Amino acid sequence: MSNAKQFDVVVIGGGPGGYIAAIRAAQLGFNTACIDEWANAKGGPAPGGTCTNVGCIPSKALLQSSEHYEHAGHGFKEHGIEVSGLSLNLAQLLKRKDGVVKANNDGILYLFKKNKVSFFHGRGTFAGAGEGGYTVNVSGQTTDTLQAKHVIVATGSNARELPGAAFDEKLILSNTGALAIDAVPANLGVIGAGVIGLEMGSVWRRLGAKVTVLEGLPTFLGAVDEQIAKEAQKLFTKQGLSINLGCKIGAITKGENNVTVEYADAKGEAQKATFDKLIVSIGRVPNTNGLGIESVGLKTDERGFIVVDDECRTNLPNVWAVGDVVRGPMLAHKAEEEGVAVAERIAGQHGHVNFNTIPWVIYTSPEIAWVGKTEQALKAEGVAYKAGTFPFMANGRARALGDTNGMVKFLADATTDEILGVHIIGPMASELISEAVVAMEFKASSEDIARICHAHPSLSEATKEAALAVDKRSLNF
Ligand code: FAD
Ligand code: NAI
């Protein structure tokens, strides 16, 4: 008889994919364990993964604080509020962010207790498979041996390094360092104008840094609807972000207190720029470090992602994988949906994730949010569509807020009027997009939204008006 602790389900990784899968499995009556190795500054457990510790949550805390600072600096004047003696206490701003993170860590530990999920702080490593199921060793902060019929792998992702420019988190920063710079750099370089580059670039620009973004591709935000991306580029440039497209990055050399990037610009001309700090945000790579996948023969693809089918089944019976470590968008809510669906499948239910209605949000100011197809994708696929847009400039609530940049854009099937995509750049786009997600889940037409009563004055009226604009019958524009 083995001394291993027996479980029905062991989840490796306590990020949004893993901790949510563990809670759902426990709710469904399974004896469930979750192993996570993330440690806080004192070495204690800090479940929640990248998202809680160095991703979604701390970045949004910094975005909020830096936006307040910027508003206090210029935005309030228009409202007749004059602030004098404004100063930045960066240490307090970072402390608040750390407090927000800790509240989320503690919240997850509480949820584990409430749902009777056994939490193990340490690294989980596959140690073999046998009649009793899979054996997973826990090492590091705690040492244990667990055994379970089902294992859910949710080990997430890490920031991708540029060759020859390893992260030191002092001069060359991944998301981890970018969220913890302890003095506002005068000159900040960012390689990669993706989601992290724009969000973190916005934070440090608002706090006073001169921010230069170097992007490899010739187009800005290629995955975003072109009309929206164009508007975003115009607004971010006006805010002071220097966005340089089509850059081919060459040597990166570290000095004592700065870092120099050599690159060819869009015209192919050699350039050299020196920064106090350099954020490298060029995408993320799946993380299977120390997981012991070889010991059980868990298959990964050529890019390191664990290979799964549509239902998150790996090549091994009863081993599942969810979140950033598998194909699909690297988003916390996608990881969560997969975690729930897998727990339900283990219980014999029909867990389901609809990849066509996963919303995306970029938390810049204005925010950018979308769901479904872009106009360029519909054109490329030869789908006949109708488009309707409505600018926030014509929305009463946006005017009252003093936040009139941007628009809502609807794309609907030319024949059936079914909504195919909704794209928003503007205030609270992250919240407004939910209406479009619900509508698309229920296969609504643009007319359905156009005929629903929306509160006045509200930003959501812009959504209704964009739906009306699909049939060229906006009322307020
Ligand atoms: P992770 O969150 O990476 O969690 C994996 C966990 O597993 C980690 O705690 C890790 O330590 C642990 N682990 C790994 N291997 C082992 C092992 N062998 N044993 C034990 N534990 C292990 N997404 C959004 O949807 N919205 C956002 O606003 C957003 N903002 C982001 C901002 C930044 C700066 C970054 C970097 C990412 C952001 N993301 C955002 C993406 C989001 O963080 C990820 O998609 C999400 O965290 C993926 O969840 P996951 O559970 O798959 O992995
Ligand atoms: P990203 O994929 O969003 O953007 C990376 C950018 O770097 C791209 O524009 C790419 O063209 C560029 N790039 C790649 N290699 C380059 C090179 N060698 N030189 C110059 N440019 C190069 O990746 P990012 O910003 O690192 O974020 C990773 C992921 O984290 C995102 O894709 C997203 O899934 C998630 N995330 C989500 C957020 C949200 O939902 N709000 C916020 C932050 C991250």
From TrEMBL:
Keywords: Cytoplasm, FAD, Flavoprotein, NAD, Oxidoreductase, Redox-active center. It is found in: Cytoplasm. GO terms for molecular function: dihydrolipoyl dehydrogenase (NADH) activity. Pfam families: Pyr_redox_2 (PF07992), Pyr_redox_dim (PF02852). Its cofactor is FAD. It comes from the Bacteria. It catalyses: N(6)-[(R)-dihydrolipoyl]-L-lysyl-[protein] + NAD(+) = N(6)-[(R)-lipoyl]-L-lysyl-[protein] + NADH + H(+). Residues 7-339 form the FAD/NAD(P)-binding domain. Binds 1 FAD per subunit. It is an enzyme of class 1 (oxidoreductase). Residues 358-467 form the Pyridine nucleotide-disulphide oxidoreductase dimerisation domain. InterPro entries: Class-I_Pyr_Nuc-Dis_Oxidored, FAD/NAD-bd_sf, FAD/NAD-binding_dom, FAD/NAD-linked_Rdtase_dimer_sf, Lipoamide_DH, Pyr_nuc-diS_OxRdtase, Pyr_nucl-diS_OxRdtase_dimer. Its EC number is 1.8.1.4. The keyword Cytoplasm applies. The active site is a redox-active disulfide bond. Belongs to the class-I pyridine nucleotide-disulfide oxidoreductase family. This is Dihydrolipoyl dehydrogenase. It comes from Massilia solisilvae. The lineage of its organism: Bacteria, Pseudomonadati, Pseudomonadota, Betaproteobacteria, Burkholderiales. The gene is lpdA.
